[in-house]
Design brief:
Layout (H helix, E strand, L loop, with lengths): L2 E5 L9 E7 L6 E2 L4 E6 L4 E5 L4 E5 L6 E3 L3 E6 L4 H5 L36 H10 L17 H6 L25 H14 L12 H16 L2 E9 L1 H18 L5 H15 L6 E2 L6 E2 L6 E3 L1 E3 L2 E3 L2 E2 L7 H16 L13 E5 L18 E5 L3 E7 L2 E15 L5 H16 L1 H6 L2
Parallel strand pairs: 12-16, 16-17
Antiparallel strand pairs: 1-8, 2-4, 2-7, 3-6, 4-5, 6-8, 9-19, 10-11, 12-15, 13-14, 17-19, 18-19
């Protein structure tokens, strides 16, 4: 027997541990070289782990295990060929005729070419079926030898419970209780109360959720964080988008959104105000200034919030930013972001407005020193030139590390961003 040990590889400098989030191949399955066998969830992204040889997969770790870099995940027996794996299981010895159980209905009989894999869900499929509370025996497997695949489980629906042929007999009344008027109401009330569920369950936090929690607490406890607010009249921006949107889409294939306009406005001001774009060292003795602007964008995913950056925003066009945003958002939703795509960033923008947030105080994305929060656009009355008019208004918030950025600088930053957005001609001209 020739065994290849599969160990957690080095993923990145800052990654010391991963979680085995899902097996993609079953224990005992034959795997090909470079075929993904499982998924790892790191602090930053979900990664597929490919087989280092062809052969029979032997589990060592389990789903949900936290594994250090270099820890043993699985073994591959390279002496097993795919033909041997496909061979049917050995026939079972038949019981004596006198002891043979009654035959099952023909409808439930297994096919003649069934093997151990027939009707057996893969680990990933089994997890999905358990979450849906679906019996695997009710699902037809489309995988090799009838194995239930992840796709089979995702498309499976729970069958409706069979109707009872006759009502269950009623329980006799208690000798201590007289079944009349008030007692009936009391019994009905008690029965109604008993129907309420007070069940609880514990679920292990995902590695990403644990990392998010740790970093948020760290940002709150280890920075001198303050938040300043302002409001922006987006009439001019909305008018600009309305006038150029059709031609913009026709030429670039993407829509001109608010995010690219905010990103360019922030980048222009950050180049003018390097303090807001700076970072403090761990020992708080040095400041690192950047002659570029890498903006991280908060993207909501099923497993938590991720903040992949777009590099050199100050040099990109609006179309370039929109295309990159669309690409990163799609990858984030599909857990396809690489470690490199999650690394860096000198400033962050988060848009709570897409969820209806009117105002909030965003938390700094360490080691950055500032984060801009966008919010919901609400039409409300404002005073303009001595008259009350209705305008599309948005509150914007800048949370900043007071160790790096002075209060006057934070206010000035927001005022400059406000001016560019309320007069986008200045933004387009770069002045």
């Amino acid at each position: 027997m020739s065994i290849v040990e599969m160990k957690v590889p080095v993923i990145g400098e800052s990654v010391t541990e991963v979680t085995l989030s899902e097996w993609l191949k079953g224990d005992g399955d034959f795997v090909e070289l470079d075929e993904p066998i499982c998924e790892f969830e790191s602090d930053k992204a979900t990664l597929e782990f490919p087989a280092e040889a062809s052969g029979k997969l032997i589990y060592v770790a389990s789903e949900g295990d936290d594994l250090k870099i270099g820890a043993l995940v699985a073994k591959i027996d390279t002496s097993v060929s795919e033909e041997a794996d496909d061979a049917p299981a050995e026939p079972k010895t038949e019981a004596p005729a006198a002891e043979a159980p009654a035959e099952k209905p023909a409808a439930s009989a297994a096919p003649a070419d069934a093997t151990y894999a027939t009707g057996t869900p893969s680990p990933a499929a089994g997890k999905i079926l358990r979450e849906k509370d679906i019996d695997p025996s009710t699902v037809n497997g489309s995988g090799r030898d009838g194995r239930i695949t992840k796709e089979d489980a995702q498309s499976a629906t729970k069958s409706a419970p069979a109707k009872e042929t006759s009502p269950a007999p009623a329980a006799p009344p208690s000798a201590a209780t007289k079944v009349t008027g008030t007692s009936d109401k009391t019994a009905a009330s008690s029965a109604g109360q008993a129907s309420f569920s007070r069940a609880t369950r514990n679920e292990k936090m995902s590695r990403m959720r644990r990392t998010i929690a740790s970093r948020l607490v760290s940002a709150k406890n280890e920075t001198a964080m303050l938040t300043t607010f302002n409001e922006v009249d987006l009439s001019a921006v909305m008018d600009l988008r309305k006038r150029v949107q059709e031609k913009f889409v026709e030429k670039f294939g993407v829509k001109l959104g608010f995010m690219s306009l905010f990103a360019k406005a922030c980048a222009q001001v950050l180049m003018e105000m390097p303090d807001v774009n700076a970072q403090i060292s761990d020992d708080e003795k040095e400041l690192t200034y950047h002659d570029y602007v890498d903006i991280s964008f908060a993207v909501s995913t099923p497993t938590g919030l991720v903040v992949p950056p777009i590099h050199n925003i100050e040099s990109l066009s609006f179309a370039d930013i929109e295309k990159k945003l669309k690409e990163l958002a799609a990858k984030a939703r599909d857990n396809k972001l690489s470690i490199e795509e999650m690394t860096g960033g000198t400033f962050t923008i988060t848009n709570g407005g897409v969820f209806g947030s009117m105002m909030s105080t965003p938390i700094i994305n360490k080691p950055q020193s500032a984060i801009l929060g966008m919010h919901n656009i609400i039409e409300r009355p404002v005073a303009v030139n001595g008259e009350v008019v209705v305008r599309p208004m948005m509150y914007i918030a800048l949370s900043y590390d007071h160790r790096v950025i002075d209060g006057s600088s934070s206010v000035t930053f927001l005022v400059k961003v406000k001016e560019l957005l309320e007069n986008p001609t200045l933004l387009l001209m770069g002045i």
